[in-house]
Amino acid sequence: MCDLTKSNSNGGNVVNFFLQTDLSLDTRKMKTWALGAVLVCVFLPHIRADDEDMQAGCSTTANDLVFIIDGSSSVGVPDFDQAKRWLINITRGFDVSSRHTQVAVVQYSDTPRLEIPLDKHDSSEDLQEAIAAIHYMGGKTQTGRAIKFATHHVFSPPDRTQATRKRIAVVLTDGRSQDDVVDAAMEAKAQNIVLFAVGVGNEITNSELVSMANNPPSTYVLYTEDYTSIGNIREMMEQKLCEESVCPLIVPDVGSTLRGFDLLTAMRVDKLAKKVQGSLITEAAYQLGARTDITLNTREIFPDGLPPSYVFVSTLRVKSPAHQMKFDLLRVLSEDGARQVAVTLTGADKSVTFTSTSALHKEQSVIFNDRGIKRLFDTNWHQLKLLVKPRRVTCYLDDVPIEEQLLDPGVPIYINGRTQVAKKVNLATTVPILIQKLRLYCDPQQSERETACEIFSVVRQCNWASKWNI
Ligand SMILES: *[C@@H]1O[C@H](CO)[C@@H](O)[C@H](O)[C@H]1NC(C)=O
């Protein structure tokens, strides 16, 4: 709280606000306030950085992000301007600073040109102005050369980079490269640079984008019809960049690509609760008892917060008497115990509530009480799934879509509170339920891939369906 230059701490926001306000304001008041802030900093030395009331999310992760933009003759000035606007829109969401995201831009045609180096700008506004001022080059398309250039001259050398900073490159191109991209891309990946390829229009070669980008293409290759419609893939690009920064691999294995949080292991449910048979003979589950306490510091579970979109999945059995209780299946609390994100089951009216925090309304909740959701409380095994998008949440039970509700985009969560599983609302009491799966996938498309084949009533459909189950 004592770093006055940090814009995501409350203090930083206030200082920025004052600095941006007309100076004819009562400057005496401002000085008094600043002095007060300094005094607080001097006299509260016991506050450790770890206890800081800090929000974490996509905007605050530590990234080196390099955009490699096609400026060849086929693009033309109007489309190049459109690409710049897209870039400005995307970078607007980041907290641009040496501590968080640093953005560089390389324009290329025959040769690459460093338009904006990584450490040039310390605010999102400055960066946006600099992007707007980039002049279009024209010329041939040497994408491989541009990637090589970024690897060697734009990203900071690995030894000077803190291990935690992610190195991400986004290549935006409208055509076939006239040089070899494969070697250049391989070299970049060997330097721990993650490559996204964005193809615009119908001149692009799919295989080239796929060989350039990281695996799988479904995650790292994006397409758009033309520059006019590039705005349509903005949300997806933001989500993917965020996933890359805040979401760990679920199975930290070579070749594994599924990102998210397996809360059953991360929250130690598998260690703290009793192992029992799950929904099928082949499945294991965990029986929570009144004395099981599934509570962890949020910092340990979601150290970099949550992405704007994600899929919450839980396979659970709400037996008697839990089926009549009101409890948070999962809740992410702030330091003072307020629910920032929560999935709540209410036995009395057989409903499910999703709670999140918006900038405007603070705590906001949407309730799913359609007839279809009531089966969740029939004391049998079920799979509850919530597809959370920035402006809407869709609720599924046993793979059947039940209801969709609108809400405002969430704000980054504070990570200095606790995260808990199966707790009575407003109480520390654990509710005795059985849990077989408790996951949060970062890729919203995982909602389509995730089946409910572990549920007996669904399993027969799964035998012939060739859906990819994990
Ligand atoms: C950029 O954002 C503005 C305002 O949200 C929007 O009107 C515009 O279409 C966006 N442009 C691109 C290219 O994404």
Write the layout of secondary structure elements.
Layout: H1 10-20, H2 27-43, E1 55-56, E2 63-70, H3 77-92, E3 101-108, E4 112-116, H4 124-132, H5 143-154, E5 166-173, H6 182-190, E6 193-200, H7 206-212, H8 217-220, E7 221-224, H9 234-246, E8 260-262, H10 263-266, H11 269-272, E9 274-277, E10 284-287, E11 295-297, H12 298-301, E12 310-317, E13 326-333, E14 339-346, E15 351-358, E16 362-368, E17 381-388, E18 392-397, E19 400-406, E20 413-414, E21 418-424, E22 434-441, H13 446-449, H14 456-464
Parallel strand pairs: 2-3, 2-5, 5-6, 6-7
Antiparallel strand pairs: 1-20, 3-4, 8-22, 9-10, 10-22, 11-21, 12-17, 12-22, 13-14, 13-21, 14-15, 15-16, 17-18, 18-19
The structure holds 2-acetamido-2-deoxy-beta-D-glucopyranose.
Description:
Keywords: Collagen, Glycoprotein, Hydroxylation, Repeat, Secreted, Signal. Residues 64-241 form the VWFA domain. Pfam families: VWA. This is VWFA domain-containing protein. Belongs to the fibril-associated collagens with interrupted helices (FACIT) family. The chain has 470 residues and is α+β, with helices and mostly antiparallel strands. It has three domains: 1-44, no CATH class; 58-246, von Willebrand factor, type A domain (Rossmann fold, 3-Layer(aba) Sandwich), CATH 3.40.50.410; 260-457, Jelly Rolls. 26% of the residues lie in helices and 29% in strands. It contains 14 helices and 22 strands. Strands 8, 9, 10, 12, 17, 18, 19 and 22 form an eight-stranded antiparallel beta sheet that branches. It has a six-stranded mixed beta sheet with strand order 4-3-2-5-6-7, sandwiched between helices. A six-stranded antiparallel beta sheet has the order 11-21-13-14-15-16. Helix 3 (77-92) links the parallel strand 2 (63-70) and strand 3. Helix 3 (77-92) packs antiparallel against helix 4 and helix 5 (143-154) runs parallel beside helix 6. The protein starts with 9 loop residues before the first helix and ends in a 6-residue tail after the last helix. Mean pLDDT is 86; it is low at 1-50 and 466-470. 2-acetamido-2-deoxy-beta-D-glucopyranose (NAG) binds at residues 82, 85-86, 89, 230-231, 234.
